[in-house]
Write a structure and sequence with these properties.
The complex is a heterodimer of chains A (360) and B (589). Chain A has 360 residues and is of the alpha/beta class. Helix content of chain A is 30%, strand content 19%. The N terminus of chain A is likely disordered. With 589 residues, chain B is of the alpha/beta class. In chain B, 39% of the residues lie in helices and 19% in strands. Chain B contains 20 helices and 22 strands. In chain B, strand 21, helix 19 and strand 22 form a beta-alpha-beta unit. The chains are: A alpha/beta (360), B alpha/beta (589).
Chain lengths: 360, 589
């Protein structure tokens, strides 16, 4: 299997073989094929595969140079998926539940990277809950995606900590412990872009991912992603059927990147517009109510209400495009620490002499 | 003259540390070789604590088992402190403790410390603190320490705090005057020497932090744990002073992580991305870092991990010293691992290895553990000033964009140079062929996932070759003596006691020995040669089961094993020469 470094992954590019017009390219002149990965080894119909496709498309459409992306993951089905998109990007498949620390170290070493963490509900909310919490509170620029199916797939179907009360496994086991709402947690802990979506909602997920690329700070996206093998049956609350019935979008999302001419008419009362840090525009057109995702307390209340109604609230739950990031806090230079020249990382002979004098 | 030890017994949190430092510095400034050890409890305030100062004209700095002068300030521990003294020892004590009734074979000097302190400051809290500086004055008078040097030391310790300087000088003088009323009845005296010209006084953790700074550390992540916290804290303050660029930006990121797992993970992530990354911890933290260590070993990522060892297992004795992590660290994590260890045995080596560890980690693309201990890390030592690192920083085998243009591509885990070390690219390298997939799962030379038996074995054997090849590049052992039939082998702070013990064995028992202090694992070939050249080699350990001896047995040819004799001791106290001398003499008959 060819994996990395092959500019195109032919087996992943669909389409007929007849002579074709040149493929559509992005602002870097790259075709979508340059953003693809290996052929997936996950189950056919797995929600994660759709998410992989959306990520590739979002990076393509945003014109992100693939080499600038660093993919991070933990352990589990979700964490295998970075192999299935962006083959030209660096990747680090780390250990179970502890990807946030690795990503943090790497992104401090090289702040010019666009960090993309892919985790699962077990990897984040069970074994990795501590590291997840601390990542959220640092507001390190990173996109953190949870491919949330409520179940451990690779170990063949055990509940994770996002499984809903009453949710039933194929084996008949019923979950009796309350779920951890990773979005509520992320908002409370200080994440500055928090959204929830469904792997089957192409339009919403694409807009969320593109906005996450534009966001400066931690973007946390919890994406319900049904497990067709272990958790897609009647009685599951993370199934395609359940999501069809209970997905409750807060708004209709559209995203206009900064590099496109922004000429969007704005009618007050129709929704909310959020200007992202890089100048791009996130439009949230109201569906039932005007939901302002810049209100942290309101967001938490609305999420709590949705649990009571058995709804899965999706869309942009919270955004603060101007918050200070961990990089600001650490006062880092623009260039990567990793490649600073020796002259900048080894103090002078005189500095050592002065320190020695202080210890005399 | 100039050869004795002082023990100051106080209550933790009573502010005696400054007084003890002044005492030590005054002796140092008089040109007399001196060392100090803090024996403290795991407690913020209230429990007994002891500070020992050893004065040695011969320059010995190991702990001396016998105390020659006790300063008894703590009612809680006084009875036991006095009971433990050798006959003829001297005791300066707080008068109300009436210790003179306890033994008749000691020299007693009662001093009314409360009255002395109250004469300087009436405020109770202040008076309590000044009692400490008063004993400095008493000790100075009785031993012949020059008051001018005491006052110079006070100025240094309380630099920039004029009021504190004045009060402390007054307290020391009060003690000095009071002691004039005492009749000197012991034989302890100091006399000015010239042994410390140019020397500095520094603790091992500060030395390590400075080493890391001059070694070009760019990312550090840590979690507080005794006895390593001061390493990270000194690093932070030193970096803020010396590593802020002219643009006002930090050329480093230091993160206090949520735990040691995260600290290790950040270091691994940063090392992967090309930073010179480090953490500092102690045994319990090392246990938590096991999983990430295995990942870094297998994915071949540079990392520097300082382990300032304390007594374990479990929480153990968190404020006492040991060398109990040798074996577990050498093979940390599950599966097949074997790590490079550096074993500093002085403050100067903490500095040198603090810098060099990054070169080694990046050259061999692997975690490097630096095993210090509480004795070395938290106590102050006389040292020659640290030489500026002359060797250029070695970033190891890294392919640039231009290299990739030339080569067309690369295989991350191939062995093109025959040394087991592959070439790597750094994330962000702007070339379509730069990226590779880093994973803790089985992989082939091109970093592709593989479960093939031959890929697994081929890869892991190459990694073993790589680590084996590091032997010659690591700090060489330090040898002393030549041609004796008996050898004494040790590592780290045991070297202080062993050097003195070899002198004792020579003088007192007419037993010639050769010494070898190893400074790295896997062991240099000269370690094998040393063992082969001696009939019997005593291996000195500060742990229960002789871990250094066990490591030697694992690493050396099997036929050399029978020559090794393990001498291990584990008390939580720094090793003293007398213990080694007695053990060797008993075995040698």
């Amino acid at each position: 299997m060819a994996e990395t470094r092959t500019p195109a992954a032919p087996e992943a590019s669909p389409g007929p073989r007849a002579p074709q017009p040149p493929p559509r390219t992005n602002r870097l002149g790259l075709p979508l094929a340059e953003y693809k990965g290996l052929k997936t080894t996950l189950c056919a119909g797995c929600g994660h595969n759709a998410i992989s496709e959306r990520i590739a498309e979002a990076m393509f459409e945003m014109g992100v140079p693939p080499e600038r992306v660093a993919k991070f993951s933990g352990i589990g089905c979700s964490s295998k998926s970075p192999a299935y998109f962006l083959s030209r990007s660096f990747a680090f498949n780390t250990v179970h539940g502890r990807m946030p620390a690795v990503a943090t170290g790497a992104l401090l070493a090289n702040r010019t990277l666009l960090g993309l963490g892919v985790s699962g509900d077990g990897d984040t909310a069970s074994i990795g809950l501590g590291q997840f919490c601390h990542l959220m509170r640092r507001n390190l620029p990173i996109i953190y995606v949870i491919e949330d199916n409520g179940v451990y797939g690779l170990t063949k179907g055990q509940f994770s900590a996002t499984a809903d009360v009453g949710s039933k496994l194929k084996t008949g086991v019923v979950n009796e412990l309350p779920p951890i709402d990773t979005c509520a947690l992320a908002i409370q802990l200080g994440a500055t872009f928090v959204g929830r979506s469904f792997s089957g909602d192409k339009k919403q997920l694409s807009a969320l991912l593109k906005a996450a690329v534009a966001h400066r700070g931690t973007s946390m996206l919890d994406i319900v992603s049904p497990c067709v093998t272990f958790n897609d049956h009647e009685g599951s609350t993370k199934s395609y059927a359940y999501m069809k019935d209970h997905d409750e979008p807060l708004h209709e999302l559209s995203f206009v990147p900064a590099f496109e001419d922004i000429a969007v008419e704005y009618s007050p009362g129709e929704g909310v517009e959020v200007r992202m840090h890089d100048g791009s525009l996130l439009r949230l057109r109201k569906l039932e109510e005007v939901y302002d995702p810049r209100d942290r307390a309101r967001a938490l209340t609305r999420i709590a209400e949705s649990h009571g109604k058995g709804e899965v609230l999706t869309g942009v739950l919270f955004v603060d495009p101007k918050a200070q990031t961990f990089l600001d806090l650490l006062d880092l230079p623009e260039e990567p620490l990793a490649t600073l020249p020796a002259s900048r990382i080894r103090p002078s002979r005189e500095a050592l002499a002065a320190i020695m004098e202080e210890h005399r | 003259m100039n050869d004795f030890s002082i023990q100051v017994a106080t209550v933790n949190g009573s502010g005696s540390q400054s007084a003890n430092t002044v005492l030590l510095r005054a002796l140092f400034q008089m040109g007399i070789p001196v060392s100090g050890k803090n024996l403290f409890p795991s407690n913020i305030a209230g429990l007994p604590t002891w500070y020992t100062i050893r004065v040695s004209r011969d320059g010995w700095v190991a702990r001396k088992r016998d105390v020659d002068l006790l300063v008894a300030m703590n009612p809680e521990s006084a009875a036991e402190d006095v009971a433990g003294l050798r006959p003829g020892a001297a005791v300066i004590y707080d008068q109300p403790l009436a210790l003179h009734t306890r033994r008749d074979d000691l020299v007693f000097y009662p001093v009314p410390f409360d009255a002395l302190a109250r004469g300087v400051a009436t405020e109770a809290r202040l008076a309590k603190l000044l009692r400490n500086m008063a004993y400095v004055g008493v000790v100075a008078r009785l031993l012949g320490i020059e008051m001018a040097e005491v006052e110079r030391a006070i100025a240094k310790v309380f630099a920039g705090k004029k009021k504190a300087q004045e009060l402390n000088v007054a307290a020391a003088r009060a003690g000095f005057e009071q002691a004039a009323k005492l009749r000197k009845a012991d034989g302890l005296r100091v006399e000015r020497m010239d042994a410390n010209r140019g020397k500095i006084v520094i603790d091992g953790n500060s030395a390590a932090a400075l080493g890391a700074m001059f070694g070009g550390v760019t990312v550090a992540a840590w979690y507080p744990i005794t006895p390593s916290s001061s390493l990270a804290e000194t690093l932070i303050s030193a970096m803020r002073r010396h590593r802020i660029g002219p643009d006002g930006k930090a050329t480093f990121a230091i993160v206090q992580a949520e735990d040691e797992l995260a600290a290790a993970g950040m270091v691994v992530g940063a090392g992967w991305a090309g930073a010179r990354a480090m953490t500092a911890t102690s045994g319990p933290g090392i246990s938590l870092m096991a999983e990430f260590t295995g990942l870094a070993y297998f994915a071949e990522i540079p990392a520097v991990i300082w382990d300032v060892q304390r007594v374990g297992p479990s929480t153990g004795l968190p404020t006492r010293t040991a060398q109990g992590d040798l074996l577990s660290t050498a093979y940390l994590s599950h599966g097949d691992t074997k790590h490079i260890l550096l074993l500093p045995g002085s403050a100067e080596e903490c500095f040198a290895m603090g810098a060099e560890a990054f070169d080694i980690a990046e050259r061999f693309q692997t975690p490097v553990f630096v095993l210090s201990d509480l004795d070395l890390g938290m106590n102050v030592w006389m040292s020659d000033p640290f030489p500026y690192p002359e060797k250029a920083i070695d970033r190891g085998k890294v392919l640039s964009r231009a290299d990739l243009d030339r080569l067309g591509g690369f295989a991350r885990y191939a062995d093109p140079d025959g040394d087991g070390i592959g070439w790597r690219t750094l994330p962000g390298t702007d070339h379509p062929a730069a990226a590779y997939f880093t994973r803790g799962t089985g992989h082939d030379e091109r970093a592709h996932y593989s479960e093939r038996p031959d890929d697994w074995e081929h890869n892991l054997r190459r990694v073993a070759r790589k680590i084996d090849g590091a032997r010659a590049a690591l700090p060489a052992p330090v040898a002393e003596g030549r041609g004796a039939a008996v050898g004494i082998l040790c590592a780290g702070t045991s070297g202080f006691a062993v050097a003195e013990s070899r002198d004792q064995l020579r003088r007192e028992r007419r037993l010639e020995t050769d010494g070898l202090r190893v400074r790295a694992f896997p062991f240099a070939d000269s370690v094998r040669d040393f063992v082969a050249a001696h009939d019997r080699v005593y291996v000195v350990d500060q742990n229960r089961d002789g871990q250094l001896a066990q490591l030697l047995r694992l690493d050396l040819p099997a036929d050399l094993g029978p020559r090794l004799r393990s001498l291990s001791s584990i008390s939580g106290l720094p090793l003293d020469a007398r213990t080694v001398t007695e053990a060797v003499a008993a075995r040698e008959g």
